[in-house]
Amino acid sequence: MHLRINGKEAELAATTIAELLAEQGIDPKTRFLAIAVNGAVVRRADWPTAFLAADDNVEIVRPFQGG
Amino acid sequence: MTDPLVIADTTFSSRLIAGTARYPNQQVMLDALAASGAELVTASIRRISLEGYSGSLIDLLGDKYRILPNTAGCVTARDAILTAELAREALDTNWVKLELIGDRELLYPDVEQLVHAADELVRKGFVVLPYCNEDPVSCQKLADVGCAAVMPLGSLIGSGMGIANPAAIELICSRSPVPVVLDAGIGTASDAAQAMELGCDAVMIDTAIAKSHDPVRMAAAMRAAVEGGRLARLAGRIPKQRFAEPSSPQLGLVGS
């Protein structure tokens, strides 16, 4: 399925956010991680059941240094 | 003497809010934050790298400090609101330092977008601390939509130019119904002291500490300056006058 992840085009087999993280090698238990799909935050508890659709725009973020 | 800073019913004993960016390394940042006495420290929200994902400095700070996420770099209300919502999910805080930039070179706030985004975030239950112009009307509008504090700029972000318009900052402080946190432009300790003397409730400092030659020592200097400036404000400065006034007694002068 074609997705846009953090601004980059990607072709993934994942159908949920949890599967997307697994496919990208990101530990879903990583602290301070947050995800939005098409401009709406998806709560951590919903990652296993949040289904993705083709061309979804996924943002995976966390806090970094800042002023 | 207790003189806490209170923002949105939350009490802080330190009136210095510290940034976490631009430090030469992680250890210097940690030592400088400790020396600053800050309890509230800022963080940005950024996309993780999908290739070779690594940890973040915030991992080290999250348990020791209260993190104030910012929306730095956002140029539209929509992006700033989404960033705030992501920050709330990531850090489990409804506090946000709202930045909406109207000019990428000057990093000057876009007041129109800022007021709109602040209004929407307050309605969504956020505690909003907006980085804003040093203009009493903008600050009033932000307070009116429910911001928990206002953060007028002293001068351009990262410029170290100090407080370019002290009269405006003093005016904002004298009229603001919410705490005033001077943000941006502080270059050295006297700037931080001046902000407090003008009536600011707190100051936000990042670059002036992080990019100094000795960030840990500068952090201690800023802490002392903020405390000194606050004490001077509470004590009340003498009025300025145009002529000398002898401080020693006039009577009993030898030889008269």
Number of strands of chain A: 5
Query: Quick one: overall form of chain A?
Result: globular
Write down the CATH topology of chain A.
Answer: Ubiquitin-like (UB roll)
In the predicted model, the low-confidence regions of chain A spanning at least 5 consecutive residues are none
CATH topology of chain B: TIM Barrel
Strand content of chain B: 15-25%
**CATH architecture descriptor of chain B:** Alpha-Beta Barrel
Shape of chain B: globular
In angstroms, what is the radius of gyration of chain A? 12 Å
The tally of structural domains of chain A comes to: 1
Question: Structural class, from secondary structure content of chain B?
Answer: alpha/beta
What's the CATH H-level homologous superfamily of chain B? Aldolase class I
Total helical elements of chain B: 9
Number of helices of chain A: 1
Pattern of helices and strands of chain A: EEHEEE
Average residue-wise pLDDT of chain B: 94
Q: What attributes does this structure have?
A:
heterodimer; A: 67 residues; mainly beta; Ubiquitin-like (UB roll); five-stranded mixed beta sheet; 5 strands; 36% strand; B: 256 residues; alpha/beta; TIM Barrel; three-stranded parallel beta sheet; 12 strands; 38% helix; globular
